[in-house]
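Changelog entry: the Prolyl oligopeptidase family protein record was regenerated in this release. Current contents:
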Amino acid sequence: MPSCPPRALARLAVVLPLFVPALLASCAGPSAAEREAEPGDSAWRPLVPIEEVRFEHHTGLDLEPIEIDGLPAWARAFGIERPDGSRAVIYVSGDADGAFTTRKPLLLWFQGSGAQSVFKRYPQGLSGGLFAYLGAEHSDRFHVVVIEKRGVEFLGGTEHSGNAEGASREFHEHSTWEGRVGDGCLVLDALLEHPMVDRSCVLALGHSEGGDIAAGLAAVRDEVTHVAVLAGAGGCQWAELVMLLRHDLRAEGLTETEVEEEVQKLFDDYRAIMAKPDSVDDLFYGHAYRRWSSYGRRTPAESLVDAQAAIYLAQGTTDRAVPIESFDHVVVELLRRGRTDVTVRRYPDADHGFATPDDVEQNGILEALDAAVGWCE
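Regenerated C-alpha cells:
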C-alpha cells in the first residue's frame, strides 16, 4: 500500500506569514475595471457590495476523476464544474483502493495566502505540505480534502510562499474572499451529495488566510458543523497591518510623530486601493488591490459571529502576521454575544506557524493541527 509523504516533507510547505518584510512596489497599469474584456475572460466580474454577495446552493454536481501526471499515489484528484464553466480541482487523501471507499466525516483544509500549488517539488522530493500531513495523520477518521486555488496549476504558482507577485491573471481576478468562499461552497455541496461522506461531522479547518476562508464557509453554510481557525481569527487585515507597523516602529525607537507619519503613508496606500478596488494590475504587499479590497470588506470576526458551527480558535502570542490583540478582539466579540461553544487556545511565545524559540524542528504547526482535529470529536 502506498504510504503518505513523511512529516519532514510536510514541514517544508508550512505557510509563511502573509505580511512580507518589505512593502512591494505597486505595479503601474490600468485596473481590471478599466481594461477591455479579453477573449475567454467572461468569468471575471467587478466586486459587488458585500451585502449583495450570494452563495447559491448547487445540486447535481459531478465529481470527475482527473489523471494528473506526477500526483502522489496516496492522493486522488477530482474536478467540479463551476457555474461559469471553469473547473475547480480538489485533492483527496486516499489509499490503495482509491478515495471515498468508506463512509467517513469530511475535513476541508484551506491553505493560507499566496499563489502556490498544494504540491511543491523540493530537492528532497515532492511535498503535499500540510495537506499531506493531515492526510497521513487523520484520513483514518476523515475524508481529507483540499482545493487547488483558482489560477494555479499542479506544482505551479509563484516562488515565494504567501506571495502572489507574478501570479496568473486568473488567480488575481479570483483570489478574493468571495472567490475562495465560493469555491468552498461549490466543493462542499458536491461532496455532501456523495454517499460515502458522513454529513453529521463537517470540519472546515484553515491556517492564516485559510482560517478566514474556513470561517467564511461556516458563516454561509450551516452544513459545516465545526470550524477551526489557526492563526487567522482576527479583525480587518488592514487594521492588523497598522498595529504591526506601530509596534515595529516603536521598537526601532522612532518618535510618536515619526510613527504617525509612517502610519499615514499606510493609510494613503489604503486610499489608493479603494480608488481602484477591482484592479488586478496594481499590487500591495505582493497581492492585487482587488484581493485587498475584498478582504477589507469582511472580517473573520464577522464570519464567526454568523457561523452556526462549533468554533475552535488557536493563536500564537508572538504572531507577526495576526497580532494577538486582534485575536483577543474576536474572542471578546464571541463572548459578549453569548457564544458558549467556543474553544480558545493561546500558544505562548509561538509565531505565525506556531513555532517557539526552542522548536528547532518546527513541529508547532503540526501539533496545532493535531489539536484542532482532535477537538472535533
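The chain has eleven helices and 13 strands.
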